[in-house]
Amino acid sequence: MPSPTLHGSSRTRKWILSSPPVEWATMQLQELLINALRQGPVPQHVAFVMDGNRRFARSNHIETVEGHNMGFEALAKILEVCYKSGVKVVTIYAFSIENFKRPLHEVNALMEIAKIKLLQLCQHGELMDRYGANLRILGHRSLLRQDVLEAIEQATEMTKHNDRAILNVCFPYTSRDEMTTAIRDIVSSSTIPHTSPPSPSPSDSSSSTSTSTSSGKTATPGLMDIESITENTITQHMFTSGCPPLDLLVRTSGVERLSDFMMWQCHQDTDIVFSDYLWPQFDIWKFMPILINWGVKRRKLEKERGDVEVRGVGMGMGVSRDGVY
Hints:
- Pathway: Protein modification; protein glycosylation.
- By secondary structure, the protein is of the alpha/beta class.
- It has 10 helices and 10 strands.
- It has a domain of 219 residues: 3-Layer(aba) Sandwich (Undecaprenyl pyrophosphate synthetase), CATH 3.40.1180.10.
- Helix content is 46%, strand content 12%.
- The termini are far apart.
């Protein structure tokens, strides 16, 4: 148990930090840092695994639901930093399909929090509206209750006119489910059944646009060519289709694994950062060094690629995204 002296000093520190002069100075410093960040490379797509809400609640002797509520407050602050800095897309891991295995009372509580917080986030004049962010819910919606689906529809409708930024909420989601869905969509599009048209006469048989399959159905020509399926084909069928490549993925709580999140979207240039802070503790002062470090590394990477391109041109070699070929 912490001593009374330590407890008193902590309360004094919180009181000082919350005083109007200190809050004003802190906000000014934040704005200065964010404006400085905007001058350099800024990740266009950032993803977060918001881990540690339950552990934070246990360590602070509060209800688990309150830990999740505090996690949402942390999210709102981080979103504001992202959008102010120039990040275009933020993707968050809000609820895994595996989370349905948790105790029913906790799952129900998380669903209630999601309903309330999504609507609060999207209200007129709130964060999503201020930064022109469009809400997208990515995941297996058929697993959700009807009242949750209705809240999601209402929230997405409130932001559908926004076109300056995107917030992807993965809920409920796993990367394996996303990839499975993408493959099913591709296969489905290659065997689209059509109502068989009347048999063409000999004079117009050459204008037929469908070909018969062995099952008696007809399919659109060209989509059956397996060789035409590329990485880009799969990317276009992912839930994140249309979003820029993932530049930065951050996971809090000290756990160093992806937990079935954004496995397809992670690529050779994605920075993955594991922070020891629990998500409710993760604020601008923990996040800002990560953004600054990303910018430094990106400048170095761009310089190295520029040097390779110059050398390659001088030696008569071609250059690909990954180097000389």
